[in-house]
C-alpha cells in the first residue's frame, strides 16, 4: 500500500499543477472581453476578477450556513436546502424554455432529422441528406435510434411540440443527474457535503443553457452519475441477494448505455477499478466485487451485442464511411489541436478509401507530428489544448441556442450581442470551481470521510484531462465532467470555508480593509456605468440560419421564390445565401421585395451577381416594423440569362423558422430559405434605464458580499473575546 499511497500523492501533485494552470487560463479569459472597444478590456478584467471574488464570498457564506444548520438545526431542516435549490433550478429551466425556442444545430440537428427519417422510412441509406455526417460519425447512432422511438411515440405532435418535449427531457436529464450526485454525496460523505455541491450546481450557468442542446452530452450526465450511484448501492447491499443481482444487471446496462451515448462515461468505471486497492484495504469484499463485476459484465455484453445488431440494421449500409478513431487523435497532434487544424486529416480521408488504410495513415501522421514537436512542443500543445477544453467557462453556448427565430432580449444577454456580462459570470464560476479542485488537490493526500468517492471522482477527472490532451480540443467537452469537478470543488471550498480568515485585531485596519472594498466596488460601478454607454454597431438577429447552413442545396427556380416569416421586432437587413456557377456577365439580375402581411410593398431592390460576397447577398433598407408577419419575394428579371442560386438546408423534419417557402408555385418544402433577418443599429451598449438596472443589481450583490464580510468579522471578534476571557 505504500507504493499505492505514493502514486496517489504524485497524481494529486500533477493534477494540482494542471488545475493551477487551468486557473491561470480562466484569469486570462477575463482579459478577452470587451464592450465594443478593446481599450476597456483592462477594466473588464478587473471587473471579472472582482465578480469571481464576490461569487466566492457568497458561496462561502452559503457553505457556512450549511455548516450552521448541520450543528444547530433539526434533521428536517437539512432537506430545506435541496428543496429550495431544485425549485430554483426548475424555475430557471421553465423560464428559459418559455421565452426561447431555438432550433437544433450541427450534430443535434443531424441526429434528430435522421431520426425522423428512420421513424418514417426505416434504415438509413447512402442517399440520406445527412450521409456526410452520419456516415462519418458513428458515436451518435444509439441516440439517433432513441430519438426515432420518441418521434414514433409522438406522431400527433407538430415539430415545435416535439422539440419542446425533447427540451423538457433535456432539463429532466440534467436535474436527475444533479439529484443522483446529491444522493451519492449524501450516501458516502453526508448531507452537508451533498447540500454544498447542490448549491454550486444552482449557481452553474452552463447547464441552464445546455437545456437547448438536445444531444448526447446532457443525456449522458444522469448515466454517469447513475453508474456511480448503482455501484455504491451494490457495495452497501447486505444479505439481499435478489436485489443485489438486479442492481448488478442494471449497472451493466448503464455502462453500455453510457458508452453508447458518450464514451467518456467509462471513466468512472475505470476509476472504480483503479480505486479497488483503496476499497480492499478497508473492507474485505473481494469476493463480492468479483461476483458483481462478472454479473455486470455479462449483462453489458448481452446488451452491447443487442445494440450492435440494431445499429447494423439501421446504419449498416453507411458504416463503411465511419471515420477511424485515430482521425481525432491525429487532429489533436498538431496546430491548435481542434477543428481548425483538421486540413491534413481531410486530405488523408480523400486520399485513402478503406478504414485500414486511413487508420495506418493517421497513426503514422500522429507519430510524425509528435516526433516533430519534441518534448517541449508536445508539452506546449497539451497545455494549450487543456486550456481550450477546461478553462473556458462559457464554452460557446451561444452557438447552441442561436439558430431560428430570436424574439426576446433575454437571448441577447445570454448568447447575443450583449452576452459579455454573462460571459464574465460564466468565467467567474469556472474559476471558482477550478480553484476548488486545486484546493482539493492540495489536501488530497489527507484522509477524510468519503475519500473513496473523492478518489473515484478524482481519477475520473484525471482520465478526462489525459484523454482530451490526446483527443480533439473543444471547450464544450469539459461540461460532461462538471459534476465530478463540483464534487471535488465543494470539498476544497468547503474545507476553506470552515477556516475563518485572519481578521486584523486593530479596528483601524479592519476599517481600512472595508473601506478599500467599498471603494473598489464604487469605482468599478462608476467605470462600468460609463462603459455601458459605449457606442457600437450591434446586429440584433431576428432570424438566424446562416450559422448552421451545412448540407444546403440550391433551389431550382425559374421565376420566383416567396418566403414568409414572423418577427415582432424591427429589422433593416436581410442576408441570403447565394452563389453562381457561370460568368457574371451572363447572369440575370433579380428583384427582391419585402411585403407586409397584407402583401403591401414595403421595400424593393435589384440585386446583381456582383453583390455576392463570400456566398452571401446583404440587402440593407430603412428600419421596418409594421406588423409581425412579412413576405420576401425574389424574382428573376431575365429568364434567358444564367441563375443566381439561392439555398435551403436539407431536411426531412426540422425547419429553421416559422413560415412557408414557395418556389414557382411549389409549396412542398419542409425547410425555409437560408436567410438571416437582422436589425443593425449603432447605439450605446445599454440605454439609460438598463444602465441603472444592471449597475444597481451589481451594487446590491456587492452589498450582500459586504454584509457577509462584516458578519464574519463580528464572529471572529466574538471568538477572540471569548478566548481572552
Principal-axes geometry comes out as globular
Q: Remind me, CATH topology of one domain?
A: Jelly Rolls
Strand content: 5-15%
- The total count of strands amounts to 12
Helix content: 55-70%
Describe the biggest sheet? Answer: 7 strands, antiparallel
Distance between the termini: 47 Å
What's the Cα radius of gyration? Answer: 28 Å
* Average pLDDT number: 86
**Uncertain segments:** none
Determine and state the CATH class of one domain: Mainly Beta
In the CATH hierarchy, what is the architecture of one domain at level 2? Sandwich
* Total number of helices: 23
Can you characterise this structure?
Helix 1 packs antiparallel against helix 19 (420-442), helix 7 packs parallel to helix 10 (216-236) and helix 22 runs antiparallel to helix 23. The protein is 59% helix and 11% strand. Among the domains are: 507-534 and 685-724; 539-684, Jelly Rolls (Sandwich). The longest helix has 37 residues, at 688-724. The chain has helices at 2-30, 41-72, 80-99, 106-121, 131-134, 141-153, 159-188, 191-202, 205-209, 216-236, 241-261, 266-274, 276-280, 286-315, 326-331, 343-351, 355-390, 409-414, 420-442, 451-470, 482-498, 507-531, 688-724; strands spanning 404-405, 535-544, 552-554, 560-566, 571-579, 590-595, 601-607, 616-624, 629-636, 645-649, 661-663, 675-684. It has 23 helices and twelve strands. Strands 1, 2, 3, 5, 8, 10 and 12 form a seven-stranded antiparallel sheet that branches. Strands 7-6-9-4-11 form a five-stranded antiparallel sheet, with no helix packed on it. It is α+β, with helices and mostly antiparallel strands and 725 residues long. The relative contact order is 0.11.
Amino acid at each position: 500500500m505504500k507504493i499505492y499511497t505514493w502514486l496517489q500523492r504524485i497524481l494529486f501533485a500533477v493534477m494540482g499543477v494542471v488545475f493551477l494552470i487551468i486557473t491561470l487560463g480562466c484569469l486570462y479569459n477575463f482579459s478577452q472581453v470587451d464592450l465594443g472597444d478593446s481599450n476597456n478590456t483592462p477594466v473588464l478584467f478587473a471587473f471579472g476578477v472582482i465578480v469571481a471574488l464576490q461569487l466566492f464570498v457568497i458561496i462561502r457564506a452559503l457553505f457556512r450556513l450549511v455548516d450552521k444548520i448541520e450543528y444547530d438545526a433539526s434533521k428536517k431542516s437539512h432537506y430545506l436546502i435541496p428543496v429550495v435549490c431544485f425549485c430554483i433550478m426548475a424555475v430557471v429551466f421553465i423560464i428559459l424554455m418559455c421565452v426561447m425556442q431555438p432550433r437544433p444545430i450541427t450534430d443535434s440537428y443531424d441526429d434528430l432529422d435522421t431520426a425522423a427519417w428512420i421513424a418514417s422510412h426505416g434504415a438509413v441509406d447512402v442517399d440520406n441528406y445527412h450521409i456526410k455526417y452520419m456516415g462519418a460519425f458513428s458515436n451518435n447512432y444509439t441516440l439517433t435510434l432513441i430519438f426515432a422511438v420518441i418521434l414514433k411515440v409522438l406522431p400527433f405532435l407538430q415539430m415545435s411540440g416535439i422539440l419542446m418535449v425533447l427540451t423538457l427531457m433535456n432539463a429532466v436529464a440534467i436535474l436527475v443527474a444533479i439529484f443522483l450526485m446529491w444522493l451519492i454525496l449524501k450516501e458516502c460523505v453526508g448531507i452537508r457535503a451533498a447540500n454544498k455541491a447542490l448549491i454550486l450546481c444552482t449557481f452553474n450557468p452552463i447547464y441552464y443553457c445546455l437545456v437547448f442542446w438536445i444531444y448526447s452530452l446532457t443525456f449522458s450526465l444522469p448515466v454517469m452519475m447513475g453508474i456511480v450511484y448503482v455501484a455504491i448501492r451494490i457495495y452497501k447491499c447486505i444479505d439481499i441477494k435478489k436485489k443485489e443481482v438486479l442492481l448488478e444487471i442494471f449497472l451493466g446496462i448503464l455502462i453500455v448505455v453510457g458508452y453508447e451515448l458518450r464514451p467518456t462515461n467509462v471513466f468512472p468505471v475505470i476509476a472504480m477499478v483503479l480505486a479497488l486497492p483503496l476499497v480492499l484495504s478497508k473492507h474485505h469484499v473481494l469476493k463480492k466485487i468479483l461476483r458483481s463485476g462478472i454479473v455486470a459484465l455479462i449483462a453489458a455484453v448481452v446488451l452491447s451485442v443487442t445494440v450492435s445488431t440494431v445499429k447494423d440494421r439501421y446504419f449498416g449500409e453507411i458504416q463503411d464511411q465511419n471515420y477511424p478513431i485515430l482521425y481525432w487523435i491525429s487532429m489533436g497532434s498538431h496546430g491548435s489541436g481542434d477543428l481548425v487544424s483538421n486540413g491534413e486529416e481531410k486530405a488523408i480521408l480523400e486520399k485513402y478509401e478503406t478504414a485500414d488504410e486511413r487508420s495506418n495513415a493517421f497513426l503514422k501522421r500522429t507519430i510524425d507530428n509528435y516526433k516533430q514537436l519534441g518534448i517541449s512542443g508536445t508539452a506546449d500543445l497539451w497545455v494549450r489544448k487543456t486550456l481550450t477544453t477546461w478553462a473556458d467557462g462559457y464554452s460557446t453556448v451561444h452557438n447552441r441556442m442561436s439558430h431560428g427565430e430570436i424574439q426576446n432580449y433575454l437571448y441577447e444577454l445570454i448568447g447575443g450581442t450583449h452576452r459579455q456580462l454573462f460571459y464574465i459570470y460564466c468565467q467567474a464560476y469556472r474559476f471558482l470551481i477550478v480553484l476548488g479542485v486545486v484546493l482539493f488537490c492540495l489536501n488530497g493526500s489527507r484522509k477524510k470521510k468519503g475519500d473513496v468517492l473523492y478518489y473515484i471522482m478524482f481519477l475520473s477527472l484525471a482520465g478526462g484531462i489525459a484523454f482530451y490532451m490526446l483527443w480533439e480540443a473543444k471547450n464544450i467537452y469539459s461540461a460532461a465532467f462538471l459534476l465530478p469537478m463540483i464534487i471535488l470543488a465543494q470539498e476544497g471550498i468547503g474545507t476553506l470555508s470552515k477556516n475563518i480568515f485572519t481578521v486584523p485585531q486593530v479596528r483601524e485596519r479592519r476599517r481600512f480593509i472595508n473601506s478599500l472594498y467599498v471603494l473598489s466596488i464604487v469605482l468599478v460601478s462608476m467605470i462600468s456605468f460609463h462603459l455601458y454607454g459605449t457606442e457600437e454597431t450591434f446586429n440584433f438577429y431576428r432570424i438566424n440560419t446562416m450559422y448552421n447552413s451545412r448540407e444546403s442545396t440550391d433551389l431550382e427556380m425559374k421565376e420566383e421564390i416567396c418566403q414568409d416569416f414572423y418577427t415582432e421586432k424591427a429589422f433593416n437587413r436581410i442576408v441570403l445565401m447565394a452563389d453562381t456557377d457561370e460568368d457574371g456577365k451572363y447572369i440575370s439580375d433579380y428583384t427582391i421585395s419585402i411585403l407586409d402581411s397584407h402583401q403591401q410593398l414595403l421595400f424593393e431592390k435589384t440585386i446583381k451577381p456582383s453583390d455576392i460576397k463570400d456566398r452571401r447577398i446583404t440587402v440593407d433598407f430603412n428600419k421596418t416594423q409594421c406588423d409581425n408577419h412579412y413576405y420576401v419575394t425574389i424574382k428573376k428579371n431575365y429568364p434567358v440569362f444564367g441563375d443566381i442560386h439561392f439555398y435551403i438546408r436539407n431536411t426531412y423534419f426540422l425547419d429553421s423558422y416559422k413560415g412557408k417557402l414557395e418556389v414557382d408555385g411549389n409549396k412542398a418544402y419542409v425547410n425555409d430559405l437560408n436567410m438571416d433577418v437582422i436589425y443593425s443599429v449603432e447605439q450605446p451598449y445599454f440605454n439609460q434605464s438598463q444602465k441603472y438596472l444592471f449597475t444597481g443589481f451589481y451594487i446590491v450583490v456587492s452589498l450582500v458580499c459586504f454584509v457577509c464580510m462584516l458578519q464574519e468579522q463580528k464572529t471572529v471578534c466574538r471568538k477572540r473575546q471569548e478566548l481572552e476571557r
